[in-house]
Specification:
105 residues; alpha+beta; two-stranded antiparallel ribbon; 1 helix; 2 strands; globular
Length: 105
């Protein structure tokens, strides 16, 4: 299995693109009331007209909140921490090519 299989089914159509990446975000300018997309890893991407990229990017790292491991946003802190630890272990396994399916409660 690969990193795509870690994503929630509703996010899999985006694949390994900026929209599912942990480095992708939005900045809001209070003065101009404009928002802009940013990449925290490669800030210069924000100046590209095609950003956020809709094609697979090699620097992709899945955002925890878009994966099958993420609990509800209002979950207790320890539940979130436990889920994040499982996510990191599974991500490391997926990167190594030895991902084993897991049942998420």
């Amino acid at each position: 299995m690969n990193q795509i299989s870690l994503l929630k089914p509703s996010r899999r159509d985006y694949g390994k693109t900026c929209r599912n990446c942990v480095h992708f975000g939005c900045e809001y300018d209070l003065e101009t009331k404009l928002e802009s997309w940013v990449c925290e890893r490669f800030p210069h991407y924000g100046h590209e007209s095609a950003f956020p990229f809709s094609f697979e990017v090699s620097c992709f790292e899945p955002c925890f909140w878009f994966t099958i491991f993420a609990p509800q946003y209002n979950a207790a802190e320890d539940v979130i921490e436990d889920a994040f630890n499982v996510f990191r272990k599974r991500l490391e396994s997926a990167r190594a090519g030895s991902f084993q399916p897991v049942t998420v409660l």
